[in-house]
Amino acid sequence: MVKKVLFALVVLSGFATPRSAMAGCTTDLLDCFGRAAKLDSFWYRTAAGLDCELDYTDCARRRIIGR
Amino acid sequence: MNTAGADVAPAVTKGTRMSGSKEAMAIALLVGAALTGCRKAPAARVPLHHLFGPVIGNEVIAGWAEAASPDDRVVLLVGEQALVQIDITKRRSERHAIAVPTGTSCWGHARLRDGSLWTLKGRRGVMQISERGDVLKERPLDSPQFGLFAHEDRLLLQPADFQPPAPVLYAWRPGNETRTPWSGLRSRPFNLARTSVAALNMITCGVGRRGERPCWFPDEAAMTLIDGSGVMRRVFLPGLEVVRPEVLLTSDNPPRPVRDAFVDAAGTIWVISSGLPVDGAEDQPGGWILAKYSSSGERFATQLLAEPVRLILRAEPGRAVVLTGSGMVAELVQ
């Protein structure tokens, strides 16, 4: 458990400089993956994971493509 | 008796040398003065002449359709649910909501040669819309899309692809079933998470008035120019700041080498790049550098701007009409 928490902190620290709306995209993605992982059905879980990825790209698109 | 210091001691004892601390202070003052003298004065910033506005607020521009003719209107897709028509000649603008259900996001905006306007509805639909935001046609797509542009009579779609390398753009004539890869432009692999790779491969295309459309990736100081038959060429843009992909993906307002680009009728490539703001400037979207390149990428000029610019709405030798960070339509005279 401690290892997992430390790993999560390390991963998040890599995304968190500077703390930003873009970092919000990433934390949203991790939250979304967390919710998807709780689904019982393999197929729903997989589809939900893919939707999480698309949500992330929507968010990222506003930041690095939007003008 | 120590005789080793005898040769130097007299100078000190005679008071012709300063003490250590005074000497250090003098050196520091000299160095400081030299540095101050050498420091460059802040580079002059090129002012913009406001024509009218503001036409938009601090909202994301999700796409824009160039004017079909010099007298025609530019149409911006803003906030993912509204159109803003800008009539540069008459110096006025109009805003219309797109007739889609609340919460529906539109992205990408393009005008075909016949004048029709198109946008993506959510991830899996494409719509023809009027300049007033009415939905004229709607068609579902079989896969999610990241972007939509146009070239002459073809829409250019960027599918959501997480596995590079793959074609970035597909051409599609509305009414036709098939979509075919457009140009040899391919997505690029990165040693990053697949979501990050997908984000870095999202492309933007600008306006080309000499038969080639400029398209660019968010992390590169380079441009791909694609002609009407899909033949492409790469042009590198020296002198623009590039940041690592990780920085681009984790910053709130990441520095982008190319924020917008416009190729004028003479083939000159106009580029807006992030640059650095004026000290104490308000936090506004847009880039602070205007750079101009020849058609082959030779740098003509790089200018710091007095205020940020979001889009180049029109460009011709010696003059550009731009949209500023404060939403004003402004003129930049070279």
Short description:
Chain A is mainly α.
If you had to describe this structure to a student in words, what would you say it looks like?
The complex is a heterodimer of chains A (67) and B (334). With 67 residues, chain A is mainly α. Helices cover 81% and strands 0% of the residues of chain A. Chain A has helices at residues 2-15, 21-37, 42-64. Chain B is mainly beta. Chain B has helices spanning 9-13, 20-38, 194-200, 245-250, and strands at residues 49-52, 61-65, 74-78, 82-87, 92-97, 106-111, 117-121, 125-129, 135-140, 145-151, 154-159, 170-172, 180-181, 204-205, 207-208, 212-216, 222-227, 232-236, 260-263, 269-273, 287-293, 299-316, 319-324, 329-333. In chain B, the strands form 5 sheets. In chain B, strands 1-24-23-22-21-20-19-15 form an 8-stranded mixed β-sheet, with no helix packed on it. Chain B has a 4-stranded antiparallel β-sheet with strand order 2-3-4-5, with no helix packed on it. A 4-stranded antiparallel β-sheet of chain B has the order 6-7-8-9, with no helix packed on it. The interface between A and B is medium-sized, with 24 and 33 residues.
Number of strands of chain B: 24
- Number of continuous helical runs of chain B: 4
Helix/strand order of chain B, N-terminal first? HHEEEEEEEEEEEEEHEEEEEHEEEEEE
Question: Total helix count of chain A?
Answer: 3
The biggest chain-chain interface is:
A-B, 24 and 33 residues
Q: How would you describe the shape of chain B?
A: globular
Give the spatial strand order of the biggest sheet of chain B: 1-24-23-22-21-20-19-15
Class from secondary-structure proportions of chain B: mainly beta
Distance between the termini of chain B: 77 Å
Q: Strand share of the residues of chain A?
A: under 5%
Q: What is the first-to-last residue Cα distance of chain A?
A: 42 Å
The H-and-E topology of chain A, N to C, reads as HHH
Tell me which oligomeric state these chains represent. Answer: heterodimer
How is the biggest beta sheet of chain A arranged?
none
Average pLDDT number of chain B: 88
SS-based class of chain A = mainly alpha
* Rg over C-alpha atoms of chain B, rounded to the nearest angstrom: 26 Å
The share of residues in helices of chain A is: over 70%
Net shape of chain A: elongated
Radius of gyration of chain A, CA atoms, in whole angstroms:
14 Å
